[in-house]
Structures are given as C-alpha cells and as structure tokens.
C-alpha cells in the first residue's frame, strides 16, 4: 500500500494544482465546491463555459464527445447537452443569470445505462477576474451522500484541467 501511495500522491498534487475542493454536509444533502484559476480573462472563461462551439472543444464528461447544445442563458431558459452515442444527456433550466458573473441552473443527468440512476442537481457557477486572470467557482448541490460526491469531484477536476488547457491554447485568440 505504501508503494502505491508513493506513486499516486505526486500525481494527485499535480492534478489538484490551483484547484480547491470543499465538501459540505447537511442532514439531508451534501454539496461539492470547487474553484480553479485560469490564465485568461473572465470574458474568455465565460465564453468557453457557455458557447456551444467552445464547449464542444474541451468538455467531455465520461469521455463522451458533446454533439448538441441548447443554451438559452436567461432566467427560465433551457440548458441541454447531448453526447455522442446518445447514452448521456444533461438537461436543466437557468434560475439566475448575471452576465459574465453568475449562472445558477438545474443540472439533471440522464444516463441510458441500466445500472446508472438519473440524478438531479443544482449548479452555481461564479466567474471572477480581470483581463489577465480569472477564477471559476462551482457549487454543486443535491448529493444524497458524501460517497456520491467523489466521482463528481474527479469529473470536475478533469473538466477544469481540460478547460485550462483549452484556454491556454486560445489566450489572445479571442
């Protein structure tokens, strides 16, 4: 076990560089919070998060390519993501929108695999920064237990690392 930890820990330190995680528990639900800094403007970060063409470049949950995006960014607007092979879809509705600063929306996962249950969450995405650097802070509510958080924590870390690599390749292009 010690040899395995000696191998894994240095890799984990790299993966979690410039990221912060926090797990909160209440009597009924658990919450995941994560934030990460980027070498891009807040506007570039917001566009990478919301623009369909940009999302398709970097976001691949469960290794699935994003093929369809509906993103009506307004209170009551629809958010819908469909992934390759039609085995994964995410649907939701925007509840609060502050342009380039805050998005709050429902986040309902539909996975066609018979051994995976659908799941409903709420996301709050805050964007902060200036023309040189930015930070995204994500709060995901609605976990039934802390055990359910860990796969999402890993998924967010992978997504934010992919987003960082995408933005590093596009800084100055926008």
Write structural notes for this entry.
By secondary structure, this protein is an alpha+beta fold. 30% of the residues lie in helices and 40% in strands. The protein has helices at 2-15, 42-50, 52-58, 149-170; strands spanning 19-25, 30-38, 66-71, 78-83, 88-98, 102-111, 119-129, 134-143. An eight-stranded antiparallel sheet has the order 1-2-8-7-6-5-4-3. A hairpin with a 3-residue loop joins strand 5 and strand 6. Helix 2 (42-50) crosses helix 3. The protein is globular.
Topology:
Elements: H1 2-15, E1 19-25, E2 30-38, H2 42-50, H3 52-58, E3 66-71, E4 78-83, E5 88-98, E6 102-111, E7 119-129, E8 134-143, H4 149-170
Antiparallel strand pairs: 1-2, 2-8, 3-4, 4-5, 5-6, 6-7, 7-8
Helix pairs in contact: 2-3
Low-confidence stretches: 1-19, 21-28
Helix content: 25-40%
Give me the number of helical elements. Answer: 4
Question: Which band does the percent of strand residues land in?
Answer: 35-45%
Average pLDDT taken over every residue = 81
- The assembly state of the depicted protein chains is single chain
Give the C-alpha Rg: 16 Å
Number of strands: 8
Distance between the termini: 47 Å
Features:
174 residues, eight-stranded antiparallel beta sheet
């Amino acid at each position: 076990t010690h040899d395995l930890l000696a191998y894994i820990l240095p890799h984990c330190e790299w993966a979690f560089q410039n990221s912060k995680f926090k797990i909160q528990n209440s009597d009924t639900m658990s919450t995941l919070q994560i934030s990460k800094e980027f070498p891009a403007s807040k506007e570039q970060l917001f566009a990478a998060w919301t623009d369909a063409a940009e999302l398709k470049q970097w976001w691949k949950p469960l290794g699935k390519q994003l093929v369809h995006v509906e993103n009506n960014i307004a209170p009551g607007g629809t958010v819908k993501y469909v992934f390759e092979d039609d085995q994964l879809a995410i649907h939701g509705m925007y509840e609060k929108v502050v342009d380039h600063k805050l998005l709050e929306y429902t986040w309902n996962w539909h996975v066609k695999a018979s051994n995976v249950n659908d799941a409903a969450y709420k996301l709050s995405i805050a964007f902060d920064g200036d023309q040189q650097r930015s930070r995204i802070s994500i709060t995901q509510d609605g976990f039934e237990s802390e055990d359910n958080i860990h796969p999402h924590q890993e998924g967010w870390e992978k997504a934010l690392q992919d987003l960082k690599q995408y933005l590093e390749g596009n800084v100055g292009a926008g």
